[in-house]
Amino acid sequence: MDDEKPKRRVRYKGTHPKAFKEKYKELQPEQYAEDVEKVKQQGRTPAGMHRSICVTEIMDFLNIKTGQIGLDATLGYGGHSLEILKCLSPGGHLYATDVDPFELPRAKDRLTALGYGPEILTIKKMNFSGIDQIALEAGPLNFVLADLGVSSMQIDNPERGFSFKVEGPLDLRLNPKSGRSAAQLLKIISREELEEILMVNSDEIYAEEIAEAIVSGIEKGRVIETTTQLQKIIAEALNFLPQNTSKELIKKSCQRCFQALRIEVNDEFGVLDKFLEKLPDALASGGRVAILSFHSGEDRRVKKAFQSLFREGIFSEVAPDPIRASAEECNANPRAKSAKLRWAIKA
């Protein structure tokens, strides 16, 4: 019997693959480092990776010392954690939390391979609203970082349903194993409820028209279970817009609607509010907190909480204005453009 020929890797067509799964070089950065670097130099984020934002600004403020104990409340790809870990030895310890059941073990493996094991790093699969539980185990925290943005590897993977640019299930959950998806939510929500979600969560200016189109469409038997199906009905709802501006306006409305639904299915505002409420008690005296937000709803909550705690004398200093990513960083990574960094120091 002839030996079976080994299976060859399925190659993509052409020299510039578009599908996420076809970008095998970007998905294996250790093996194709030069190719990945070329992608970065073009101002793009390689598939399956995430480029941490405002790293220099965050590290300058946190001013981490050896032996300190702190929390990276949103581990993600692990980029911020890596920079923090470099500052902690000897004697320091970093706690990190995340709810993503797929990306968390990858980040853990990535950091372990770089030499950061349990003696310096504790990773927990939990929501960062449980910061009080971390402080109970670790003691008062010298520093806390929370990056509230969705990671690039989540956005770019069609199977996660975060983007309308490609076909994928309309999911939008940070933890797909918990709660209900955006598609499931749309099947049971009223027009009034959806309109409020779109207005409150993303300031959508066409919330009424879009909510009416979605809910009435589903009531008439229309299926909205994929990202492109939702994008299509949003575009149809806005067909009254002037033709010369409609394409860009529809794109922005799609972005806002996907954001609003993501915030809703993950209860992002509720989680952030609980985190901000528990934060002061979790920090040590002189402890520092830096929070990176990416839209006005998050930033308003952080600003309001910090200013209130400052007036009460709980925080000795707060950022007078948000810090923005540099022009150089925004050119290299366009996803940094909307980032706002606020900080505070506990009295």
Descriptive report:
This protein has 14 helices and eight strands. It is an alpha/beta fold and 347 residues long. It has two domains: 55-152 and 269-346, 3-Layer(aba) Sandwich (Rossmann fold), CATH 3.40.50; 176-265, Orthogonal Bundle (DNA polymerase, domain 1). Strands 1, 2, 3, 4, 5, 6, 7 and 8 form an eight-stranded mixed beta sheet that branches. Helix 3 (79-88) links the parallel strand 1 and strand 2 (93-98). The longest helix is centred in the last third of the chain and has 23 residues, at 243-265. The mean pLDDT is 89.
Q: How are the SSEs placed, and which strands pair?
A:
Layout: H1 33-41, H2 55-62, E1 69-72, H3 79-88, E2 93-98, H4 103-113, E3 121-125, H5 131-138, E4 141-147, H6 152-156, H7 182-188, H8 191-202, H9 207-219, H10 227-237, H11 243-265, H12 268-282, E5 283-293, H13 296-311, E6 315-318, E7 323-324, H14 327-332, E8 340-346
Parallel strand pairs: 1-2, 1-4, 2-3, 4-5
Antiparallel strand pairs: 5-8, 6-8, 7-8
